[in-house]
Amino acid sequence: MLIHRHFTGTHYSPWAEMERMQRQINRIFGEIDAQGFGGYPHVNVAESGESLIVNAELPGVNSESLDISVKGDQLQIKGSRAEDKDKAGHRYHLRERKSGDFSRTLRLPYRVNAEKVEAVFKNGILEITLPRADEDRPRKIAISGRLN
Amino acid sequence: MAGNDKEIQKNNGNTASQEHADERRRFLTPDTDIFEDGDNIYLVADMPGVDKKSVDIAVEKNILTIKGYVEPTAHDGHKVTFREYGSSDYRRSFRLSDDIDNDKIEASMENGVLRVLLPKSGPARIRKIPVLTG
């Protein structure tokens, strides 16, 4: 489980203070709340009033190992990245790539329609498109009468 | 930089304009593993977003340079509201020991991971390495 620590980041991080501030800012403005800012995988989020597009960097991850789930306004990305087979006699000069299990949950700015979520995996980038839930769309209220 | 095979050959040709463009650009440094056994040195680099047609590998003297060009992604009508990673091109250079057989270097690219196999022995000289496709 030594490997797993890369993802959970239990060691000292000089960015910890910035991450804490980022989380606070996210809370204040009610925007994306990515638990563990800078966790794994790294994500970018683009939004319109109608849908969200979440991109995650997952190089070398087998798409079959990916487990994407949506519930209300929560998106969870789980999976594992296999380690290169360590053959006997291999001597490492540089070891920067991480491997092991990962799990990340994002709180989205609005509820999404889980039935219509689509995911595409290409060149190590996962792209998830999440349409806004109908019940969460802003509704225009027609004025049908007047108060007496 | 993505395109047909002809364009890739041109990239590999290291034209003056390409070099000039590279000077002004900001590159990301890919996370890399390097390991060796008795026969080969292996290099594995994470370059998410790079297609196998957009990789450029060159060995000059004993410096191995890998580059990967990322297709810009545009999401019509969407505004980026949260960003943890930048989508820049990748570049990194490595000094190799002299005993690499440049004629037998192989490279492959899958799921955003570049793998380069560098067989030991042989004199070092300038050579461009095509990325295997298929």
Question: Could you explain the architecture of this structure?
Answer:
The complex is a heterodimer of chains A (148) and B (134). Chain A is mainly beta and 148 residues long. Chain A has 2 helices and 9 strands. The longest helix of chain A has 14 residues, at 16-29. Chain A is elongated. Mean pLDDT of chain A is 79; it is low at 1-11. Chain B has 2 helices and 9 strands, in the order ααβββββββββ. The chains are: A mainly beta (148), B mainly beta (134). The A-B interface holds A 31-32, 34, 37-38, 42-48, 50-53, 55, 57-62, 84, 87, 89-98, 109, 123-125 and B 31-38, 42, 44, 46-51, 73, 75, 77-85, 87, 111-113. Strand 2 of chain A pairs antiparallel with strand 5 (79-83) of chain B, so a sheet runs across the interface.
List the main descriptive attributes of the protein structure presented here.
heterodimer; A: 148 residues; mainly beta; 4-stranded antiparallel β-sheet; 2 helices; 9 strands; B: 134 residues; 42% strand; elongated; disordered N terminus
